[in-house]
């Protein structure tokens, strides 16, 4: 394998609500993640004193970040993607002044990263928002939330402008189509008009925040973040090809708006044909012209789609329902493994936008077993990441500007979909189970040393 460019960033990605814990500590407010203890597809619950949610402690990154960042540095990370918990900075979401204790926590985290020359890549909203904004305002369904989010973003830009130069607006912004409560704070059954109106408000907020970032931190770069939900036509039947194109447009639409600065014509027709009413003002259209500097995305799997849906069984993998691809194997959680797909996505996005690309999530969730000798031999994870990195290397040879790669997640964490610890992604094992039992001890897996060697060789040891 040829070496990756010297500018290529190597690291991992985590999210505040899946690693930090410290539930309501130091002034933190209740978030939407806090009231979804069973994960993003689980029911909302009313939190009571002394009740249990595995995310309340998660892996206790809030108190153990120094230890964890030191382990990331030992692997050779040059970057780390994490998120700021919005409800740690503005507990209710509508305050004028930020919570100083929350700001101070991230000061400590970013300082620790800088100590090891690890560049912070910070997501402003990763599957959580202050729950008060949902109960009092209706989440992103209310146009006021644009102002609340911009105020939050401007506050953290101003505070961390000398420490953070790479930002992302919303994590997997297109996920709102599949889990509206997690994505846009819409509880219960909602119409397509309500969901797309909330999404529109989020797209406007993203554009306004991009402009704010450029104003406050002129030497920073800010990108969007898409869930790379690539589907293939099940057959070469034209109806299947058309179905696949339309299915891919559902997630590419978000990138089209954020990279091209306006709604694509195919989406306007989709709204018209499906009687979806979205209020878009002239001020909104002007705001959307502010486009992102780069495109980041997650990639875990692909699937197939057909126009003859009644003839095939749809299966859920990740958050998407697809027809299984007969040419691909699947993980223990039914996610189909397709390394070539990441090269296809990189080429697709590069051809479409001509903006730098960043793979900010990719990894294998699996059950890891500790041997009697205390070792975790996760060769399956090594193979998965190796094969995907090889394809990223091929995409770079294709002439694509790939900024870097952050695996999900470099340390075991609470999964987003079902709030499990048993679904492990990390190079670092954390002793905690799905019932919250365990010492929280950190332990290096076999993949830890493998990833360390890949970074040290700048990708040359990939096979």
TrEMBL record:
Its EC number is 3.2.1.86. Signal peptide: none annotated. The keyword Hydrolase applies. It is an enzyme of class 3 (hydrolase). Pfam families: Glyco_hydro_1 (PF00232). InterPro entries: GH, GH_1_N_CS, Glyco_hydro_1, Glyco_hydro_1_AS. Keywords: Glycosidase, Hydrolase. The active site is at 361 (nucleophile). One of its GO terms (molecular function) is 6-phospho-beta-glucosidase activity. Belongs to the glycosyl hydrolase 1 family. This is 6-phospho-beta-glucosidase. It comes from Proteus alimentorum.
